[in-house]
Amino acid sequence: MESRTGYVRYTDTLPIGIVMRASSSKLIVRLFPFLTWARPTRRQNRADAIAGITVGLVLIPQALAYAQLAGMPPVTGLYAALLPGIVGALFGSSSLLAVGPVALTSLLTFAALQPLAEAGSPEWVVMAIWLALYSGLMQFLMGAFRMGILANLISNAVVQGFVNAAAVIIIVSQIPALLGFDTGAGENWLSTLWQEWQHAPWRLVATAGFGLGGVAALLLLGKLTARLPAVMVVTLIGIAGSYLLGFGELGGSVIGPVGSGLPQPSLPLTLSVDQHLALLLPAAIIALISFTEAMSSCRTMSRITGEPWDRNQELIGQGLAKMASGFSGAFPVSGSFSRTALNAYSGAKTARASLIASLLVLISLFGFTELLYHLPTAILAAIIIVPVTRLIDVRSLTRLSRENPKDGMVALVTLVVTLVTVPNLYWGILAGIAASLLAFLHHHAVPRIIELGVHESGGFRDRHLYQLPPIAEGVLGVRMDASLTYLTAPVLERSIRKRVDAAPDLRTVLISASSLNQVDSTGLDTLQDIWSFLDARGIALYLSGPKLPLREALSRTGLAQLIKEENIFATDAKAIEALT
């Protein structure tokens, strides 16, 4: 059986049963990608075990810290690290991506819920669960319908501006916990700090000692060795120090009792319709931003390992992981860049390393959470702050502004609006997207139009840039480096009219059409207007190098007969030969 192109398709020569089995196999692989995992070798198992244990030891305290950042009960951080990590590994496309609670998504969760409920309250927890479910469902549907390209709506400039602003917000938000003083919205830090000093100076000094000591220890251990789980080391030291000093009994802020046992899957139905609607926009922002963060990790790992990854399959994996977190009673999760990097550095070979890390979380939920009781919240603040400081990248922002001023401006707009509109961080994202669209429209609505001259190489070049004479006496040649559309066509017409008015001796106008990749109805109407304007002045219009879409449009509308076929040259070289 021949296809419409005239070629015999290979599948058409096969029995229908084989074709159907092949199609069903592809569907099964897409639904259950872990079925394609190869049988591991003993060496791979050993490497994955070491990497999984290393990441797991970091994941447990980080999960507690990011639960604190999201305004959630501590145990929900462990829930967010358990099933989502397993689901992300089984259904994602990148074998080394570590899925679980992360700083940026936790901050977005807190920012989304702060205007809607009281942090840590039952209503807050229920709304966080639905936020995870909605953002996960959005990602899953994007991946299932092969719409991963929608993630490109958020440009690199928007991401850079937002991430830098978010890093500053996260660090500032953790300073009170790091130094040991409580502050509410609108309260003056200095006055609150002074009141704390007068009331309980020992507690303030001890808390600041834990917090600042934790920051110093994390930075020092990070420089000494990347293989050592510095986060777990600092956590254990903090717990021991707090217990020996009786820090909690003396009024110090400790994490307190952490629940244990497996999460109980549930779907709370206590929210009103208005509350559900209020979660949709933040959920969409979390879906896009968190996937952009995960994509960055996937790309980096792909460059290092050479392993291919699929954007749509990763969206499915990330979406299912978020929904698993929601059904576990936790908050939205994402791919962690820092734990993914640690996973790779520790020698992980397959996604089984992530399963082992989740196994450690499972073990901690059965009998080990009691050991966390005396962990100072200042240590959790340090665990949040240190990795986040790496997100502040002024050098990249400066380079972006230098290489592309428009992108630099988009990043600056995103950064400033995000900082100004705290806690409604999504306004920063929306402002960045709007600025990106405006920059895109400006770029395409103000195209580069050059006057042509014949270069010594024999082709057309910008005559003002290369200081070339006109193509010939009485001949004006122009080229617009853009498609001929409703945005650009009026600009081309104004440019030609202006140049013709300034040179009354012109007899010929040549438009080099080699760069006109697309043309719409406005472009064709404008081309006819240009011909009419020139014809009224006795000036001939020529075209050179039109591509197939433009040639077909000219023939279909009759413009080819109006301009005359002999005035349309197949190439710029033919035009040069005829006009010079």
Short description:
The chain is mainly α and 580 residues long. The protein is built from 22 helices and eight strands.
What topology emerges from the helices and strands here?
Layout: H1 16-31, H2 42-69, H3 74-91, E1 98-100, H4 103-113, H5 122-144, H6 156-179, H7 189-199, H8 201-224, H9 230-245, H10 273-305, H11 311-327, E2 334-336, H12 337-345, H13 352-364, H14 377-389, H15 394-403, H16 405-420, H17 426-445, E3 449-454, E4 460-462, E5 475-480, H18 489-502, E6 508-512, H19 521-536, E7 540-544, H20 548-557, H21 559-563, E8 568-569, H22 572-579
Parallel strand pairs: 5-6, 6-7, 7-8
Antiparallel strand pairs: 1-2, 3-4, 3-5
What does this structure look like?
- This protein has 580 residues and is mostly helical.
- Helix content is 61%, strand content 6%.
- The protein is built from 22 helices and eight strands.
- It has helices spanning 16-31, 42-69, 74-91, 103-113, 122-144, 156-179, 189-199, 201-224, 230-245, 273-305, 311-327, 337-345, 352-364, 377-389, 394-403, 405-420, 426-445, 489-502, 521-536, 548-557, 559-563, 572-579, and strands at 98-100, 334-336, 449-454, 460-462, 475-480, 508-512, 540-544, 568-569.
- The strands form two sheets. A six-stranded mixed beta sheet has the order 4-3-5-6-7-8. A two-stranded antiparallel ribbon has the order 1-2.
- Helix 18 links the parallel strand 5 and strand 6 (508-512).
- The model is unreliable at 1-14 (pLDDT under 50).
- Keywords: Membrane, Transmembrane, Transmembrane helix.
- It comes from Marinobacter salarius.
- Residues 473-579 form the STAS domain.
- It is a multi-pass membrane protein.
- This is Sulfate permease, SulP family.
